[in-house]
Every structure is written in structure tokens, then in C-alpha cells.
Amino acid sequence: NRIPPEPSGGRNSAEESVNGLAGDPLASQSSGLKPASEDPSGGESQPGTPLPVPGHSGLSIQEMVAMSPELDTYAITKKVKEVLTDNNLGQRLFGETILGLTQGSVSDLLARPKPWHKLSLKGREPFVRMQLWLQDPQSVEKLMHMKRLEKKAYMKRRLSSLSDGHSVDGALAGSDYVQGSQSPGQQQLKKPRVVLGPEEKEALKKAYQQKPYPSPKTIEELASQLNLKTSTVINWFHNYRSRIRRELFIEEIQAAGGVGPGSEGGSPSLRGSKSGEGDSCDGTESEGTAETRQGLGIGLEDHRGACKDHDMEAESEAGGSNSSPTQLDCVTSGLSGPGSSCGQAGLGLFSLTEASSSSSASSTNIPASGPVRNPRDNNLRKKKAANLNNIIHRLEKAASKEDPSEWEF
DNA sequence: TGAAAGTCAATATC
DNA sequence: GATATTGACTTTCA
């Protein structure tokens, strides 16, 4: 992975920023800006653990990551978002200058940080960088300075392009900063981005519910039925599994009562029909997650194991009957409604696959009687029902096997 | 070696 | 214009 080019020709790569945190020549100007971290040691929601400053300690960022104590990734991202918002600093500038990441990555990282213990060394690096940045009393000043430099450079380009009779965009397009170092010829060779339609996504999600780890044969079939490349289907499954897992981490933190986004009502899993529509691998939703799992003693690793088990079950079931359509038929035909023989695989007592994709409580099959509940309660109920489904399904599976050694939990 | 993790960058959305 | 999403790809890990 490369570090993005420098925006304005200045010394602002992430590496330099980190290594230069202690000794940056930028003068501290009193501007009334909210300091990045008035209390580096951290208040209740503050990123807590102060790190040694690389410039002083002589450590590389990798060494610092390796030596770093456990950091509260949620508190760090929360604080970073706060500082960026308060000072009107963009994710792009922050990402490219401080983290060496692109805007999209920064957005993702800030919105869905993974817990420290789930991160690899490489994954921890941005959080260490953020922590260092927060610790730096001049962090905001430096970034503001960078912003000014960028603006200056932009104005300069605009002026010169105007005098040359070229558009600014044209001038920008020719720079590394905007387009990278590709020549126009290379740009034309670029593959167009595949954008999956809602039907395709729906079919893939249904397929995922039945087989989170599809066999190559299933992938082939899915690809041909959806008219996609097999690599697209493979990528989709990789990405979906990965993103579902991340949603689960968020939920786990929330359930643990941490500083997670839930404390502000911003759980990604509850964002309506976007990424929150994620399903867990065994026919339930991602919402059937930590809270419930913890209560029932099912951890994430167990959950993942269940995915594979379920996959194998689905695999054997799919090819096992001649009298009913295969699961794949059901997935791609969209005929899994009531009365159809489709849509039953992987479901327990409550049918949550389709209905609970909506954030509306009434869309679940959970009885609506009783006192009016707030959305949080409904979500909890959905989670519990979904998890119950999962357990019941596996119990049923287990019970259907004569040899106890074949029971799968 | 396959799956997960991490990231880019095009595109969508606000 | 800034931020969010997501398909594709590379790197890391078990």
C-alpha cells in the first residue's frame, strides 16, 4: 500500500508527520482553536494511553505500534471525529497528512473502528498515529496550516491555469495529487467499476444466508445466474463476510457497554437499509450479535465456526433433494415467499431473513402485542429472536442426526 | 494456501 | 464539497 502523494508539495507524508510530531517547525499560533487534546491522558471518553513521541523516543511507527499498550480505538476515533468536526478539518486532509490513508479509508476507520485486540499490527498503525496526533498539542494547528497551504497551492494553480487558458480541473488532473501518476493512456485502460444492482445484491445476500462460504461450484452458478464474473462473486463474499464481522465487533463493544457508537445511538448495524442490513452467516441478522451472544455464551469465534458448519449443511442439503428447487434456485429466482418451497433453509421459528431487513419493528414476525416499546427494545427483541432462531435451527439439525458424534454446535 | 485484514479509489449520497 | 459505501486488489496471518 502506498502512501498518497503529498497534496501541495510540502513535507506532509504520514511518516514524516508522525516522526516530526515533536519537532515540527510550525509555530504555535494562538488562534482560539479547540486543542486536539487538552487532556492527553484522557477523561472518561478520551483516548487514554499516552504514547511516547516518536521524534523524541527515536522509535519508528512500527516499533511504536509493536510496543503500544492496548488503545481504546473507539475513544480515539470519537475524539478524532470531534476534533476534526470542531475545527472544520476534512477526512481527506487528515487521512493523507496524518495517517497516510485515503478519504474512504479514513471514513471507514472512523465510523467502524475495530477493537484493538482484533487488529493486526498493520491495522493498529492508524490508531497509534491518531493517538499521537491527539497527544500533540499543536496537532490542529499543523493541520490547519496544511489546509492553508493546500488552499494557497490551489489558488496558485487556478491563477496560472487561468492565465494559460486551461481549466483548474485540467491542471489538477495532470498532477499526481489528484490522479496519481497514471498517464492518460493508462487511465483509458482502467476497468470500469462494477456496480451491483439491488436485485443482484439481494440474491447474493440470500445466497450468503444459506452459504457464507460457498463452494466454487456455487460461486460459478451464482455468477452465471446473476450474469457476473466469478471473481466479482468471490470478492463480494469476501467483502461481505469481512464487513459483517466488523459490524459484529461494533455490536460487541456496544453490548459490553463501552464507549462505542451505540452510546450515541449511531450503531452502524442500525443504520437502516445500508450496511446495517448485514446478515449473520447463519440466516439471522447481524443484529443478532454480541448482546445476545454474550447472554447465551456464544462468542464470535463460535459464531464463525457455525458459519462453516452451516455451509457444509447447506451444501449437502442443496444437492440432496430432487423434489424441491435447490437453494440457489430460490436465491436467484426471488421466489422465497410464503407457499414457496424456497426460503425455509436456515430459518427457525421466526422468519427473519427478509422481514427484519427493515428497521421497522412491525416488519418482524415478533408478536407486536404488549406495551409499546422503543426502537432499542425492538432491536433487542429482534436480536434475541434471531439468535434463538439460530440455536433452534442448529438444535433441530443436531436432533435429526442419529449419531451424536455428528451433532453440530 | 485459503481466509482475513487492510486499503484504494470509483461512485453514491448528503 | 465532504463524507459514506463498496468492488477490487494486496498483504498478512494461521
TrEMBL record:
Domain of life the protein comes from: Eukaryota
Ranges where the CUT domain occurs: 62-149
Location, primary (coarse class): nucleus
Cellular compartment(s): Nucleus
Region entry Disordered, spans: 1-57, 173-192, 257-335, 357-383
Biased composition (Basic and acidic residues): 300-313
Known DNA-binding region: 189-248
Cross-referenced InterPro entries: CUT_dom, HD, Homeobox_CS, Homeodomain-like_sf, Lambda_DNA-bd_dom_sf
Residue stretches making up the Homeobox domain: 187-247
Keyword entries, A-Z: Coiled coil, DNA-binding, Homeobox, Nucleus, Repeat, Transcription, Transcription regulation
GO cellular component: a single term: nucleus
GO molecular function, one term: DNA-binding transcription factor activity, RNA polymerase II-specific
Extent of Polar residues compositional bias: 178-189, 325-335
Family: Belongs to the CUT homeobox family.
Descriptive protein name: One cut domain family member
